[in-house]
Predict the 3D structure of the following.
Amino acid sequence: MIQVQNLSKTFYVARREAGLKQAFHAFFRREREAVHALHDISFTIGEGEMVGYIGPNGAGKSSTIKVMSGILTPDSGSCLIDGLTPWKDRKAHVRQIGVVFGQRSQLWWDVPVIDSFELLRDIYRVPEDVYRKNLTELTEMLSLQQILKTPTRQLSLGQRMRCEIAASLLHQPKVLFLDEPTIGLDAASKLAVRDFVRQLNREHGTTVILTTHDMQDIEALTSRIILIGKGQILLDGSMDTLKQELSPMRTVTAACQGDIAALQLPEGVTLGADNTQGEGLRHLTFSVDTGITPVPALIAKLSEQVSLFDLSVQSVSMDELVLSLYRKYRI
Amino acid sequence: MPYYKERSGLCAALRQYSTLFRIRFIGGLQYRAAALAGLSTQFVWGGMTILLFRAFYRSDPSSFPMDFQGLSSYIWMQQAFLALFMLWSMENEPFELIRSGNVAYELCRPVDLYWMWFVRTAATRVSKAVLRCVPILLLAAFLPEPYGVRLPDAGIFLLFLLSMGLALLSVAAFSMLVYISTFYTLDSSGLRMLAASLTEFLSGAIIPLPFFPEPVERVLSLLPFAGMESTPLQIFAGTLAGKDALTAILLQLFWAMVMIIGGKLWMQRALSQVVAQGG
C-alpha cells in the first residue's frame, strides 16, 4: 500500500545569537543552518496495517506525514501510495487519504458541523447515497447525533476531535493519517477515539498511520511501530519483538539500611534515583538488565551488603520503553 | 481510486466551487450587526463626499470634469458596492492559514488551492455587498436631484453589470497575489498596507479618475487598478460611454486574465517550495 524509499528533506533554519548586536548583524548576514528533517527514510506498509509512528518532538514525524499526504515535496527519494506519488499526483492522491492533524482544525469555525460535512462531500465529489451511508455510520460509531447541528466553535475539544475524524472519513479513504489525534483529550474521549479507530480498521480494512506521544494509543491500536529520531528510522518492528528486546529491563525499588556509598552492584545493574527522605531508611531504585543479571541474583547481592526492608519489582511501561529507546539511540 | 464511483464531469467540478461559494456566502450573511454598522458608515461617508464635491462644484462648475448628477451616482454606487471593490479590507483567512500552517489541511483537498481561495474571496465580497447595496441604493434613490442616483438606460446598465463582474475578478485576482506573497514573507501586513493605499489611490476609490490631470488619467486608465473600481462606476455615471467603455471592459478582461494566470503560476511555484509552519 505504502512504499517509502530513501526519502530525504532538509530545511534551512535562520539562526542567530540573542541580543541587539547579533540582531543587527543578522540584518545584513543571515546564518542559516541545515536541519535534516528526513534522512534516507525507507519503509513499507501493507494494506490494512495499523502502524504507530513515534519519535520525540522534531524527529521528523510530521514531515513524513506531510510528505505522504502530498503537502511537502521531499528533496530526494520516492514514495508510492497505492501507486501514486503524493506530491506529483496531488489531487488524485488526496482523494484516497484522510488526514487528521490533532493540533489543527478542518471544520469551518462558524457554521454547524453538518455544513462542513456537506462542503467536504462536494469537494470530494462523494455521491449522495454514499455520503448518506457513510454519515449514518460515522454518526453512530462516533455518537455525533447531538452535536452535528452545533457550530464548531461551540464544541468541546473531545467533541470537535470526533467530528474532525468523521470529517476525514466521509470520502471513505483507504489510508488514514492520524497526527496526534488524542492530544489534549480527556480519558473518556481518548478511549472513544481509540475504539473507533480499531473498529474502522477491523471493519473497513483502512490502513492507519498514527503519530502520537501517547504510548497508550500505540499500545491500544498498533501492532507495529516505527521509531524515528533525528530524521532517521531507528527501529521498525512489531510491538512484541520490541517488548521482547527491551523487556529484560526491570525496575527494582528497595528500602534498605547500610553503607550505600560502598555498594557493589553486579553487572547490568544501574543505580537510579535515591529517594531518601530524611534519616533512616534509604529508598533506592535500580534498573536491571535481566539478560545479564537476573533479579534474584541482584537481591542476593544486595542482601549481602545492606539490610533490606522492602522490595518491589516492576517491568517497564511503554513510556519508559520508548524513553530507553531514545536513550539507546541518543536522540 | 475510491471504492465508489465518484461524481465526475464539469457538473461535479462546478459543484465543488459553488459549495465553497455557498458556505462562505452563508457565513457572510450571518454578520448582521457588522452589515448594519457598515451600512450607516457608508451612507454617511457617501453623503459627506458629495457635500465636499458640491463645494468645489459651486466655486467653479466649468472646471468640473463630471456633471454633478453623474458624480453623485458614482459615489452612491461606490458606497453601495464598496465590499466588492475595497482592497483595504482583505480576507484574513488565507494569511492566517499560511502563518499558522493550517494551510496543510487545504492542501489535502482534491481541489486547486488557487481557485478555492479565489472563489472564497469572491464569495465573501458578494455576500457583504448583497447585504449592503439594497438599503443604500433605496435611500439614495429618494434623494433630490442632483444628489441621488440617476439610473442609466438598460443597455448601459448591462454593460455596468458586466464591468462590475470583471472588477470583482480583478480584485479577487489581485488579492490572491497578496496572499501568495505571504508564503514567502509570512507576515503580509506591510505589503497589504502598501497595496491598499496604492490601489485605493490608483483605482479611483478616493477621487474619481477624471479628476486627475489628463496625462495622469490617461496612464491610470491603462493600469489594472482602473478596472478594479473606476471602470464600472464610470460606465454607470456616464463618463465612460460607447467605444471607450468597450475598450475599458476589454482592458479589464485583459488585466484580470494576466493577474489570474500570473497568480496561478506563482502559486504553483510557491507550493513546491512551501513549508507548512509548525508541528
Observations:
- The radius of gyration of chain B is 20 Å.
